[in-house]
Each structure stands twice: as C-alpha cells, then as structure tokens.
Amino acid sequence: MLKVKNVSAGYEHIPVLFDVSFEIQGGEVVAIVGSNGAGKTTILRTISGILKPMAGEIEFLGERIDNIPAHKIVEKGIAHVPEGRHVFGKMTILDNLLLGAYTLKSQEDIRSVLKEVYDIFPKLKDRENQKAETLSGGEQQMLAIARAMMSKPKLLLVDEMSLGLMPLLVDKVLSILKAISERGVTVLLVEQKVQEALEIADRGYVLQTGRVIAEGTGKALLASERVKRAYLGM
Ligand code: ATP
C-alpha cells in the first residue's frame, strides 16, 4: 500500500532522515519506534506532504505522492494525527469532528462516517455538544484520532499518541488503533514507547538518528537483544 524508497528529508537543507526505506501492506499495523529526535515525526510529515523529501520516492497505492501537495494526499486517503493532538478547545466535539470531514462531498457521506466514528468512540457521541477543552488528555487524543477518521482514510498516520498519557490510557488508545485496523484502515504509528507499540504492531522498524537499523515482526523485535538493550532497559 505504501512504499517509502530511499528517502532523505530534513529542515533547511540539513537532513535528519538518511536513505530511509520501508513498506506497509494494506491492513497492517506498523510501528516505527525510536528515541526522542530519531526522526519519527519527520517521516510522518514527509509521507503526508508537509515536508518534501530531498531524495527518494514515496508511493501510495501504486502512485507517486512525494511530488503532490498535502491536501491532495489527504484526498488520496492518508490522514495524519499530529503529535500534541491540536484539537480546537473552544469548539464543540462535533465541530472538531466535522472539520476532519472537509474532503467529503455529500452530507449523506458525512452522516454515515460520523455514525461509524461514534461506533468506535461512543463517549464522543455522548458529549458531542461539549467544548473539546472539557475533555481529559486521553479523551482529546481519542478526539484527534476520531477527527482524522472523519476523512475516511485508507491509511492513518499517528504521531506519538502516548505523549503525556498515563500507562492505562496508552494501552486503551493503542487498543483503539487495533480496532480501527480491524475495520480495514491501515495504521502507521510512531512511538517512543517501544514496548507498548511493538506489542500491538504486526511489524515494526527501529529508527536511530535518521536511519532504519532493524525491522521485523513486533514479536521478533521485542525479542531481539539489540532492541532489549537499547530501548527496553534489559
Ligand atoms: P520527537 O519524539 O521528539 O518528536 P522524533 O523522532 O519524532 O522525536 P523529529 O521530530 O522527526 O524526531 O526530529 C528529528 C530531528 O529533526 C531532531 O534533531 C530535531 O531537532 C530536528 N527538527 C525537527 N523539526 C525541526 C524543524 N522544524 N526545524 C529544524 N529541525 C527540526
């Protein structure tokens, strides 16, 4: 579904990703894990077109997307949940959700996707007329994911959803991502919480200072000595 081929990217001509390659098949949950500053956010920004690669190519469903603008990439079916949530606190939950549906053309489409999103996140329905700022951190994270789901994505990119959440909530949000993938949406998440992310991922990639240094099934990576030593404190 997604092929990232030999991508280098960065800021102001200074690369932070070097020759990064990986692939995602439809229906998978893939995790890219690594420490703070490894370049995880930069990968997601490059896929969603916020940042243009300095070298390499990105293909989505057989078509090159690294040379088209970000809003066109959303229309092709890639939605990005940014780090830090960025929900609009003064707006209601429903209005936050409707903002995510701007690519949909008909009211009927919007109603049906809203119903589906409320099936996944029933608490948001109960509170749809409340301001988003009344939600807790974990609920705001759910809202950010729900808003991205409103564009009916085929591929959902999720940046560091565990940030600032209690362990119990991290598990809860991760299990929601698994449920989303079971509904046919492919998920790419990037995480500093290496253990938790690899536990739910079908496959993972380890990113260190802008380079992919290991890949494998979530299980295999969790069992690898290198990952255990470097990220799991064993
Ligand atoms: P984090 O968990 O902190 O987000 P990360 O793995 O997602 O870490 P990135 O945010 O992709 O890492 O950052 C990779 C490198 O790029 C870091 O050295 C960072 O300082 C640098 N960087 C990130 N954003 C910018 C920017 N807007 N301008 C310049 N350098 C940046």
TrEMBL record:
* Gene3D superfamilies the UniProt entry points to: P-loop containing nucleotide triphosphate hydrolases
Annotated keywords: Amino-acid transport, ATP-binding, Nucleotide-binding, Transport
Q: Which family does it belong to?
A: Belongs to the ABC transporter superfamily.
Domain named ABC transporter: residues: 2-234
Source organism (scientific name): Thermotalea metallivorans
One GO biological process from the UniProt record?
L-amino acid transport
Q: What start-end ranges are recorded for coiled-coil regions in this protein?
A: none
Q: Which GO terms label this protein's molecular function in UniProt?
A: ATP binding; ATP hydrolysis activity; branched-chain amino acid transmembrane transporter activity
Name the SMART domains on file: AAA
What's the name of the protein?
Answer: High-affinity branched-chain amino acid transport ATP-binding protein LivF
